Amino acid sequence: MKVEFAPINIPLKRRIQTVAVLQWIFSFLLLAEFCCGFFVILILGNFWFLAVLYLLWLYLDWETPCAGGRRSQWVRGWAVWKYFREYFPIHLIKTSELNPNHNYLLGFHPHGVLVAGAFGNFCTDPPFKNLFPGLTPYLHIMPIWFGCPFFREYIMSAGMVSASKESVSHVLNNKGGGHASVIVIGGAEESLNAHPGSLTLNILKRKGFIKMALKHGAHLVPVFSFGENELFKQVANPKGSWLRNVQEKLQKIMGFALPLFHARGVFQYSFGLIPYRQPIHTVVGSPIPVKQNLNPTTEDIDQLHALYLQKLKKLFEEHKSNYGIPAHKSLIFE
Prior knowledge:
The chain crosses the membrane at residues 21-41. By secondary structure, the chain is α/β, with parallel strands linked by helices.
């Protein structure tokens, strides 16, 4: 394979952008394991008492990821995130006002490989804050990550909270409104479909978010992130293949998927784990008003779910021509 090296005279700003994305990749893929390893070293070493103190803290603080987390405006405002967003670049597009007197449930699509658009738009400042003043976004992720020592503190500081029912309820229960739960609807399973050009969404059987919106009277907002699936190439894993079967079995066992992806490196463009410089345009749609229903029936849930799919498809169709999607291509719901 011929290696295409990056030019030597690349501007310093672009180098900094690459470093910013490199640290994000490290954080996403390895920081949790690094933190767990460090914790084990503390236990086995001379500083075991620090590990005991942290375990006590963990016990007392265990429910925080389900109770709104512990965000840090300082962490969310780090300069590194500005360079991270500029690398792709990441854009947040507003199509309608979101009244801060209400609570909202934003359905984010598609998952992509590493949900870069969701992180860049909802876990860093100031994109969302500038466009939707008065609203506080909470990105819900798998509960398993909040069991990692030290790592949990870092992700909570960025505004991430658990994706458990208790956590979503806590966010949407805010009296007076002003909260926005952001849920990546397709989940880990959808990441296995994250190939360039793919428009397949795992959503037909995912109705839990609809039930939560009904129970809390939270307005539903479809969000589509154009370019999310273009950041990496993934090893071919069509449904029914041995690789896909293995990935799906591991996903059911561990709770998260293991897509085999690749892109570019730091000093060359031929291989590596750094995403391609492909623009991401995250379009926030118009809210679907939801009247609170503490005991929604299956019919109620199905009816609102169908309306949500209709609004999501409309959002995609209205904006796809702006972001290089051919006119004949449409979303595929599975």
